[in-house]
Amino acid sequence: MIRNKYVLYFFRIIVGGVFIWAGVLKIIDPLGFAQSIANYRLFPAWMAFFMALVIPWIELICGVLLILGLFPRTSSFVLSLFLFAFIVLIWTAILRGLNIDCGCFGSFSRKVDYSLLLVDGILFVMSTLLFLSSGRKEV
Questions:
Q1: What total number of domains does the chain contain?
Q2: pLDDT digits over 2-45, tens only?
Q3: Do the beta carbons of residue 131 and residue 73 sit within 8 Å?
Q4: Structural domain for 123, as ranges
Q5: Phi, psi of 84 (to 5 degrees)
Q6: What is d(CA 79, CA 82) in angstroms, rounded to the nearest whole number?
Q7: β partners of residue 102
Q8: What pLDDT is stored for residue 108 in this prediction?
Q9: What is the spatial distance between Cα 82 and Cα 80, in angstroms, rounded to a whole number?
Q10: Taking CA atoms, which of 7, 72, 73, 112 is between 20 and 30 Å from 132?
């Protein structure tokens, strides 16, 4: 995969920074994030509230670890899973014609649309390349 340490560092800063920012904004307003999750109409209320309490902390921790270069393989794997899940959620919302905010960045969230799919797709590729480019052992 990618061996250029500067490209990998750039990917770590971008992906980690996005998830730190997103995590902090969701931690500040867990009820708002729970409502954003509920707006997708795929999860029961109790699960939306549970996810609103847990997901932002995982995003924040993985983002920090990724930027620091601690457990980059694990962090990028978890964030790749999240991004894949977000892509599926956004795609299903578009297909069902839901006119909702993504919930990605708290009150700074934008509407679910194809450009959001593109952004998440780029982040997914970056994160997956980080995972594949990290050695088998954690550093």
A1: 1
A2: 889 999 999 999 999 999 999 999 999 999 999 999 999 999 99
A3: yes
A4: 5-132
A5: -60, -45
A6: 5
A7: none
A8: 83
A9: 5
A10: 112
Task: Answer whether 12's CB lies under 8 Å from 67's CB.
Answer: yes
Q: Which of 76, 72, 34, 77 is nearest to 53 (CA)?
A: 34
- End-to-end, the C-alpha distance of the chain in Å comes to 17
State the average pLDDT over residues 96-102: 94
pLDDT of 60 reads: 98
With tokens 């088998």, the residue in question is 136
114's tokens: 């194809």
Residue 11 lies in a domain: yes
Give me 17's structure tokens: 């920074």
pLDDT band at 139 (very low <50, low <70, confident <90, very high): very low
Q: Identify whether 137 is part of a domain.
A: no
Inside any domain, residue 117: yes
Any domain includes 70: yes
